[in-house]
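Worked example

This section walks through a single chain of length 224. The input is the sequence exactly as stored; nothing has been trimmed or padded.
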Amino acid sequence: MTAPAGAPGRERTAAEERRVRWIVRLGGLLLRLLASTWRYTEVNAAGWRALRDERKPFIFTLWHGHLMPLTWRRRGEGITVMISEHRDGEIIARIVEGWGYRTVRGSTSRGAGRALLGMVRELESGKEFAITPDGPRGPAGEAQPGVLLASQRSGAAIVPMRADCARAWHLGSWDRFMVPKPFARVTITYGDPWVAPATDDAAAAELAARIGPAIPAGLPPRRP
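Given that input, the structure is written out below as tokens.
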């Protein structure tokens, strides 16, 4: 008997779904075990905490390579994050949703218009948002205009944030993705809340300066 037309495609889809589920289960468990050992120090957190106390929306803005320690630290707070529509984005979305985040799918390269609209709607409804302005493909430390547009249209302040860790692995990816080692001390530094004055190159450069270096000194950047 011949297989019905389209059956192989459905089988591949089912196999892919099983793969994603297992990666999320096992990867999520391993990440929790590792991240539960990290110890945090926070610097200059008063500005964004005042916005939260006043129930004013704002946008946490961080470099892609700092995602892991920062996402773990702010888990369980109902923050909305933008996740790429790429296949790997589905894995990341499921893991962070398990950590208490809301998700909007899209990026500066795919689904940009829809993602920006969803971001502005979240902010206008009073939600907090987090975005990596150099993701998902880089170059590392170069801010794309999406977060500036969202700040201007919604009036929400941008809160720059970064993670520094002396004891960390850095992957060979374009962003030198940071994975703190077991029991590492992670320092999170927040910038003062800032509403973007424009969406031009000067505003993007100012945002990058407010976040700080994307890659630690001594680690050469990799091409996207």
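What to look for: Confidence is low (pLDDT under 50) at residues 1-10.
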